[in-house]
Design brief:
The structure is a single chain. The chain is an alpha/beta fold. The chain folds into three domains: about 1-105, Cobalt-precorrin-4 Transmethylase, domain 1 (3-Layer(aba) Sandwich); about 115-215, Tetrapyrrole methylase, C-terminal domain (Methyltransferase, Cobalt-precorrin-4 Transmethylase, Domain 2), CATH 3.30.950.10; about 230-275. The chain contains eleven helices and ten strands. It has helices at about 20-25, 35-45, 60-75, 90-100, 115-120, 140-150, 165-175, 200-205, 230-240, 245-255, 260-275, and strands spanning about 1-5, 30, 50-55, 75-80, 105, 130-135, 155-160, 180-185, 190-195, 215. A five-stranded parallel β-sheet has the order 3-2-4-1-5, with helices on both faces. A five-stranded mixed β-sheet has the order 6-7-10-8-9, with helices on both faces. The termini are far apart. About 30% of the residues are buried.
């Protein structure tokens, strides 16, 4: 008994788990964001017809008490339109309400679009952030993406077909060389995986854009370690002892990553003057 979060396939019906089938077959009530989608899914999986209740942001306050009452005396399955409920949908509020009311809550493992896309990207994932949907408003979108580009870890976002072009254009303007990955229609017939720069991915994207999209932005490359002043001075002294001129030293050390050429020229000039005293 209680509330059970049941992940559903992103597209390919064979991705449903055996435990998900068990819960959907035996539960007393199915709560869904869109009951039409849930009804089609149950039929496609060959499951018996179930009582379906709609649970959306617009009606959550009105139906939560009734859902929890059913969960106290039986099993209520919560599903989203696809993937794991509670991610970018109102399921989180129902979980909190159930815990506050002392109703048992269980979450089954299963499909999740943002996890699949993050793994497919090939980016470093020792740490990454899931940001939900990219903000709609132009200014908020740019601020959010700019903040993501400054992170050392990858960022994963959901995006809509109507806004993916604008999002990639913003990324192209802010960080034209930053690697990005876009997954479209994961596990479905027309799945598309695109990797490259923002402009490169944009050029490959099928038009008109349709379907569900996930975009992964790689983390910022760590800043190269700057040699210490002691190391720089040691290199300058070695070069001076070998007979190199100050311009040659500044040019060579700048190319090797020891700093700005002008500063290296100044430092080499000082080291040469010290040696001549």
């Amino acid at each position: 008994m209680g509330l059970v979060l049941v992940p559903t396939p992103l597209g390919n019906l064979r991705d449903v788990t055996l435990r998900a089938l068990d819960v959907l077959r035996d539960c007393d009530l199915v709560v869904a964001e869109d009951t039409r989608v849930a009804r089609r899914l149950l039929a496609a999986l060959g499951l018996p017809k179930k009582t379906l209740w709609s649970y959306r942001e617009q009606n959550a306050a009105a139906v939560t008490a009734g859902i929890l009452e059913r969960a106290r005396g039986g099993t209520v399955a919560l599903v989203s339109d696809a993937g794991t409920p509670g991610i970018s949908d109102p399921g989180r509020d129902l979980v909190l309400a159930a815990r506050a009311a002392g109703v048992a809550v269980e979450a089954l493992p299963g499909p999740s679009a943002f996890v699949s896309a993050a793994v497919l990207s090939g980016f470093e994932l020792h740490g990454f952030s899931f940001e939900g949907f990219v903000p709609r408003a132009k200014g908020e979108r740019e601020r959010a993406l700019r903040a993501a580009l400054e992170r050392a870890t990858a960022s994963v976002w959901y995006e809509t077909p109507s806004r993916i072009v604008q999002t990639l254009e913003v990324l192209a303007s802010l960080a034209p060389e930053r690697p990005v990955f876009v997954a479209r229609e994961l596990t479905k017939l027309y799945e598309q995986q695109l990797a490259g720069t923002p402009a490169g991915v944009l050029a490959q994207l099928d038009r008109p854009v349709r379907g569900e999209l996930v975009i992964v932005v790689s983390g910022a490359a760590p800043a190269p370690l700057q040699p210490s002043q002691v190391e720089t001075d040691r290199e300058i002294d070695h070069a001076l002892a070998a007979g190199a001129s100050v311009p040659q030293i500044a040019r060579d050390l700048a190319r090797r990553g020891f700093g700005a050429r002008a500063e290296l020229y100044r430092r080499a000039s000082q080291r040469r003057a010290t040696r001549e005293l």
